[in-house]
Amino acid sequence: MVSRRERDKNYPGRLGVVGLAFAVAVAGLAWRLVELQVLDCDFLRGEGEARHLRVVEMPAHRGIITDRHGEPLAVSTPVASIWFNPRLLGEAREQWRALAEAAGVSMAHLEKRMKEGGRREFVYLNRWVEPDVAQRVQALEVPGVNLQSEYRRYYPTGPVAAHVVGFTNIDDRGQEGLELALDETLRGIPGKKRVIQDSRGRVVEDVENLRVPRPGQDLRLSIDLRLQYLAYRELKTAVQDHNARAGSLVILDVGTGEVLAMVNQPSYNPNDRAQLKSHLYRNRAVTDLFEPGSTIKPFTIGVALESGKYYPHTPIDTAPGYFRVGRYTIRDSRDYGRIDVSTVIKKSSNVGASKIALSLDPMRLWQGFYQAGLGTSTASGFPGEAEGHLPRSRTFPFREIEQATLAFGYGLSVTPLQLARAYAALGAGGELKPVSFLYREQAVREHQVWSEGIAPTVLSMLEEVVSDGGTGERAYVPSYRVAGKTGTVKKATRGGYAKERYLAVFAGLIPASHPRLAAVVLIDEPQGKYYGGQVAAPVFSKVMIGAMRLLNIAPDNLPPLHLAERENTE
């Protein structure tokens, strides 16, 4: 047994050993501290930055879309979106309910996003939130939850220009309309910057800019918002008044081929994503085909005049009001008897148009329609534009009935835009121009449809249609000469044509002395009244009364009394 004296004797030695060990440990720690803070600082800094240094994307501003006068049709506004890191948020489960309430989402949505997040570090909780929502979420200081700056697309005109402009998706990519067609031009290039984030994923320091965001290019459309509003209002009223299924209205600038207005019913509000349904956002004026009916007769007559076989006063016998072609019978609404070519247009005689067409070379008739752009794409670049259909047999001639019905608009199909373009060519002296949804400084030539003098002659015949006793007299615009043509078309169904389903159509030009505007009005399945002259022609009249005033186009048909009064005042 060790005595107390011996233990006391060994104590200083043991104390020295412990002290020495302690001194060595302190020296080692000191050396390690110097090594970490001085010798290996670059390594540690790199390790820290690897954990907290991140490259983040800076959103680019999407280009603004305006009408021809600079009025905004689509703009991008800065907004905040809420995102989270699933790993960090999972450690703060007690704050989930408060977060869901502040972010404006359900607990079920939050839990679903957590499951979908998996091992990712970035998951959206709610996009494009209001500023007060963003502030509430930020005030909670929930671990792993942050805000990100983005841009949201806003459409100031709502449903008025929706079918032309289109819309973007949640990631600001074009989905329909010109937003889709010109997406690459409108979409900018996002920037990048290197930042330092804290343990909660929040940016605490901007380190450096790697790439400056490049905003998208602004676009100036050919649309005149004043005419767009006017057309939208009148078309919507007509569709409602006639309890119609749908409707379209297109206005073109005769001189340039620009689309000044294009509207459809039903429409939708692109600011409300609940309304983004295909039957609402489809641009019917570009994508939907229809048989144009009697609105095609001016082009039949144009080919006839071009052939040299016919003149405006050439007589045509339409008695007894019907005409048999093989086993088929072509009818007029009544027996017009012996009339001239001009009256065939004025009274919209199917019999007269058929007899004229059957006397022409079928290849010449087909080429006349084709050169006028009927049944072919306008090459406007609008997404989903329909090609149309212009029948062509492998060997000419057509069957007689095909040639006869083609003369009054059956057996071919066009879009409202194609028909408006063909009428614009009539107003431009027979010159067909490319269609454009973008503003043009000057006209672009394409090709001549008819030789000189044919288009003005047809135009004068079309003025008779809008005069007293013509089928389009309700398209009358006070103090202006109007040229136009009505169409009442039976809708095609499986196995033939529906008996009580019609399209009411009017295509016109104003002022007829020197056409500035070409327009097509289409009302799909109006109830009760269904003739083009009763349903579509009045819409043309109301729109053009306003258009002449808005565009400050001088009258070309002032009554003599007004002229005399003006001369007296002068």
UniProtKB/TrEMBL annotation:
<dbReference type="InterPro" id="IPR050515">
    <property type="entry name" value="Beta-lactam/transpept"/>
</dbReference>
<comment type="function">
    <text>Catalyzes cross-linking of the peptidoglycan cell wall at the division septum.</text>
</comment>
<dbReference type="GO" id="GO:0009002">
    <property type="term" value="F:serine-type D-Ala-D-Ala carboxypeptidase activity"/>
</dbReference>
<dbReference type="Pfam" id="PF00905">
    <property type="entry name" value="Transpeptidase"/>
</dbReference>
<comment type="similarity">
    <text>Belongs to the transpeptidase family. FtsI subfamily.</text>
</comment>
<keyword id="KW-0378">Hydrolase</keyword>
<dbReference type="GO" id="GO:0071555">
    <property type="term" value="P:cell wall organization"/>
</dbReference>
<feature type="domain" description="Penicillin-binding protein transpeptidase">
    <location>
        <begin position="247"/>
        <end position="544"/>
    </location>
</feature>
<dbReference type="InterPro" id="IPR005311">
    <property type="entry name" value="PBP_dimer"/>
</dbReference>
<keyword id="KW-0132">Cell division</keyword>
<keyword id="KW-0812">Transmembrane</keyword>
<keyword id="KW-0131">Cell cycle</keyword>
<dbReference type="GO" id="GO:0008955">
    <property type="term" value="F:peptidoglycan glycosyltransferase activity"/>
</dbReference>
<feature type="active site" description="Acyl-ester intermediate">
    <location>
        <position position="294"/>
    </location>
</feature>
<keyword id="KW-0121">Carboxypeptidase</keyword>
<dbReference type="GO" id="GO:0006508">
    <property type="term" value="P:proteolysis"/>
</dbReference>
<protein>
    <recommendedName>
        <fullName>Peptidoglycan D,D-transpeptidase FtsI</fullName>
        <ecNumber>3.4.16.4</ecNumber>
    </recommendedName>
</protein>
<dbReference type="InterPro" id="IPR012338">
    <property type="entry name" value="Beta-lactam/transpept-like"/>
</dbReference>
<keyword id="KW-0997">Cell inner membrane</keyword>
<dbReference type="InterPro" id="IPR036138">
    <property type="entry name" value="PBP_dimer_sf"/>
</dbReference>
<keyword id="KW-0717">Septation</keyword>
<dbReference type="GO" id="GO:0008658">
    <property type="term" value="F:penicillin binding"/>
</dbReference>
<keyword id="KW-0133">Cell shape</keyword>
<dbReference type="GO" id="GO:0009252">
    <property type="term" value="P:peptidoglycan biosynthetic process"/>
</dbReference>
<comment type="pathway">
    <text>Cell wall biogenesis; peptidoglycan biosynthesis.</text>
</comment>
<feature type="domain" description="Penicillin-binding protein dimerisation">
    <location>
        <begin position="58"/>
        <end position="206"/>
    </location>
</feature>
<dbReference type="GO" id="GO:0043093">
    <property type="term" value="P:FtsZ-dependent cytokinesis"/>
</dbReference>
<keyword id="KW-0328">Glycosyltransferase</keyword>
<keyword id="KW-1133">Transmembrane helix</keyword>
<keyword id="KW-0808">Transferase</keyword>
<dbReference type="InterPro" id="IPR037532">
    <property type="entry name" value="FtsI_transpept"/>
</dbReference>
<keyword id="KW-1003">Cell membrane</keyword>
<dbReference type="GO" id="GO:0005886">
    <property type="term" value="C:plasma membrane"/>
</dbReference>
<dbReference type="Pfam" id="PF03717">
    <property type="entry name" value="PBP_dimer"/>
</dbReference>
<feature type="transmembrane region" description="Helical">
    <location>
        <begin position="12"/>
        <end position="34"/>
    </location>
</feature>
<keyword id="KW-0961">Cell wall biogenesis/degradation</keyword>
<keyword id="KW-0645">Protease</keyword>
<keyword id="KW-0573">Peptidoglycan synthesis</keyword>
<keyword id="KW-0472">Membrane</keyword>
<dbReference type="GO" id="GO:0000917">
    <property type="term" value="P:division septum assembly"/>
</dbReference>
<dbReference type="GO" id="GO:0008360">
    <property type="term" value="P:regulation of cell shape"/>
</dbReference>
<dbReference type="InterPro" id="IPR001460">
    <property type="entry name" value="PCN-bd_Tpept"/>
</dbReference>
